[in-house]
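<instruction>
Derive structure tokens from the sequence

<record> Sequence and structure tokens follow
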Amino acid sequence: MNKFFTVALCFMLALSLYGQTAADYDARLSPIQTYQRSNPSYLNQAPRSQSQTVEIARSDMGIQRPIEAKKTGFGYHLGFSSRIFYSNNPTSANDGVSIKGGGIWENSLNNSFLLGSYDLGGATFSPIFGLSYLKNSNFGTKAHSEFDFDVLNINFAGVFQIGRTWSIRPNLSFNNFFGDKGFTQFTPSLALGKSFNIFAARSFVDWSLSYSFQDNDRLPIPDLHNRFESAWTWGLAIPLGNFEISPYLRFAYLNYNKADRADFKTDLGIYLDYSLTEWMKINTFVSYTNNSSDQSAEEFSRADIGAGTSLTVKF
């Protein structure tokens, strides 16, 4: 009986943290994937042969002046990705109350529209509209399935490319989490990035500021998890034939003003991609997250390991 109450208590505590966990949906993408989403040259490249896959991957890593863009300056990217992985803390709850580790299966459909490239003299401007849908399914125990959710993301970014390596990216993002645990989140942000080469590898550093407005009726205060975030990100893509190795590191400071709480979050990981064709990849990955907080109940660590595949079409 005592064991039953202990499990029930842990489950309720983990459930109370779900709003924070799901709110980190964008962070579930690797920083490299996030950076690629706002890359005009990634959307605007013409199809190439498989022998040129490595060059495509290299140029995808950083925003570059669209000298290879189509004459119209418009582009479209349609992608589907699926990955399955094990997490020792699938709810990102406090280590003392987290439920037992289990499996997660995520499927997403992504649409990105490059709405032209405009010359501003010493810079170019590229507006990008994005629409994506993600389905997150947990398995392992009955408790895990309680944390399933779907997310619709609508995103609009304006990318100012300065020279060949610097970029400034204002961004507006809206997330709608569906289901019994549904809520909405709106996040304006501003990022400064620089891309560069390290021998044959492509790298970038990125600094961003954002504020997330959340409306969650399941919380005592619907906007309790509103937060300011400042983050520094580094990513690297190393091509090795049809393989690509992509380590990343991210540090973030988060301030939840309504909850009188401040966190420091570290994310690091590595992806190994293999290009089967110019439009299909398979990958494996390992990632680790550590969240330190001035409220001990909000501290957690999480490690994930898994594999996936992605299909990409560019027009």
Notes: Helices lie at 2-16, 18-23, 25-28, 31-37, 40-44, 53-60, 142-145.
